[in-house]
Design a protein that fits this description.
Helix content: 25-40%
Number of strands: 8
Strand content: 15-25%
Largest sheet: 6 strands, mixed, barrel
Number of helices: 5
Shape: globular
Strand order of the largest sheet: 3-7-4-6-5-8
CATH topology of the largest domain: Barwin-like endoglucanases
CATH class of the largest domain: Mainly Beta
Oligomer: single chain
Distance between the termini: 40 Å
Length: 183
């Protein structure tokens, strides 16, 4: 079963790369797809995919056809880095840390990232009114990440950085950090 799943995954990666090169304007949702991984595949944000498709929630269904903007689908530019030419805005925030294993946590983010299956994923929880979900960011002391989660205590200029272990989260503590919103 694992070999079959890995073969399927490899085929999907090859297909998605060729689809992006062909500037496909439509993406058909496959089993396991999330708005987050679709947006990453097409070098865009979750919010942009939702806007293109008039989605009011993060719920998508297998077989659903999603419109992908032609410039996003055709983009072959590399992921943005933290250098100043790729910085749209910089803000100072209060930062805490969390793990996928907290009491009451499912391990799946608001954008569908499974942190238990991807413990080293660089994800931050944000207030979407301040940093939209799907936004690429650079967090001082943490590195490049994606705004892929929300939290009940995350309001205003506050973020929560994902850590793979409880000890790493405790070591992070509470910090004031600069966050660069990347283009």
């Amino acid at each position: 079963m694992k070999k079959m799943a890995m073969s399927f995954l490899a085929a999907m990666m090859i297909f998605s790369a060729s689809a992006a090169q062909a500037a496909a304007a439509t993406h058909t949702v496959q089993k396991g797809d999330t708005l987050y991984n679709i947006s990453k595949r097409y070098s865009t944000s979750v919010d942009q995919v939702k806007k293109w498709n008039n989605l009011s929630s993060n719920t998508i269904k297998v077989g659903q056809k999603l419109s992908i903007g032609s410039t996003a689908a055709a983009s072959s530019k590399p992921a943005p880095s933290s250098n100043t030419s790729n910085v749209k805005k910089e803000i100072t925030v209060k930062s805490t840390a969390y793990t996928a294993y907290c009491s009451g946590c499912s391990g799946v983010t608001a954008t569908g990232i499974n942190l238990k299956k991807n413990p080293n994923a660089k994800v931050i929880a944000v207030d979407p009114k301040v940093i939209p979900l799907g936004t690429k960011v650079y967090v001082e002391g943490y590195g490049e990440a994606v705004a892929g989660d929300t939290g009940g205590a995350i309001k205003g200029n506050k973020i929560d950085v994902h850590m793979s272990t409880k000890q790493k989260a405790k070591n992070w503590g509470v910090r004031t950090v600069k966050v660069k919103i990347l283009k």
